[in-house]
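Protein: Guanine nucleotide exchange factor
Species: Didymella exigua CBS 183.55
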Amino acid sequence: MFAQQKSGKAKLDDVTKILTDLKTDLDTPKLSSKQRRQQLEQLKVYGRDPTNADPIFTQDGLRTLGRFAFKEKDTAVSQEALRCIANALLLQQKARQILVDLGHGSDAAEKFKSESIDDEFLLSRILFLTTYGANLDYTELVNEHHLADSINAALQRHADRYTEPRRRTKEHAAPMDLMALSETLKLLFNITHFHPDLSQHFTSSITHIFKILLHRDAPTNPLDAPISFLINALLNLVREEGTGSATQPHDPDLHAALFPSLEPSINTTHLTTILDNAIQSYPASELDATISPLLTLLRRTYELAPSDVQIAMQSRLLPSDSDRTQPLGKTSSLPSRLLNLSTSAQTPALRDSIAAFMYELSSKDAATYVANVGYGYASGFLLSKNIPMPESAIKDAGLAGGSRAVPVNPITGQRLDKEQPVEMPEMSQEEKEREAERLFVLFERLKKTGVVNVKNPVEEAYRSGRIEEMSDSD
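Structure follows.
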């Protein structure tokens, strides 16, 4: 059968004839299941290029395909019709609203109850495409056709494949399984993005998504699909306080999913590991697009976390004592890389996000923030947010005490006992005078910013009598 090679008017005539024959067969069945499948397969081939395939994208054509897709009992025939519809929705946006007007949105939601991996893939793609350019009522699909329950069940089946001994080895890595998982996660993301009030219906999927993340082998690029789809789906389910009834910090279901009682930090630790690997794997020019969702997810999770999990996250993400053997940002640790990204010109979207996260990890306290990252990294963020700096912040940041046993340089964050002595030639009297004048000007400018109230040391020295006027001859 070489009809797929036809083009122009011959192709249009053949598409019209196939749809006419299929429509007639719906009213007066004469074709065998094999013949129906062959006709739909041919129509699918034609539909990959919309040129001279117009009848497929009409109301009459989609009605015919819809009846085979959602009413046909033969699975192979039904899935071929679903493939034709999925191609049509992808290539012609107008087809999406036509499908919705025909009532096939609810049909797709009902059929999603199937446990077939092929059905899941095709139905997820069809429903995903109708989230753009169509007015499908997803609240109705969730409340009346149990679409959320079907999606949660599908994700649970994916998660169970990683640990269920009855499954054949590596079934979760089969191409169709990966495609179905990706399409379902994309659908979940769009539903919760466009309809955030429906997020609460998908809370049970958080556990399934983390199970997949924890058991899945890390790809060469840590945020390649489906990892990126898993992260994005979580991003809409773990919403900030006050953005939905399912996202309040004391919601027991959300809390239990994020912080399992046996290992409360297991999920946040794994997300932090992915972040660490991703920063090392992607060039700086790609980091804005790749890790921003993950960083946002970590920030939201931190806000909801119990104190012991917050402490564990602080230990992984804030500079440690070993980082302070050099000026902060000079080691190869995750906190050092984050600090460098917070000032990188190549990551404009991440700069403020990372700085804000470090501030949140510091209990949103300016003095603690300066103590954790050094004034050099903290000053820009504090100034941009108009956050006042306590007068004692820089002084206290360098003192030993609390968990820090050795004083540090409050500007660079480096331990004072690890600083290398700087060998410089003795300054001439003229150089000393110029340096004093430069410092005087710098301190006057700093006072005018209002960020920190400082006393000019040159002025103080003059008032205290430690500076004396010299004669012109001297």
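Remarks: The first helix runs from residue 8 to 27.
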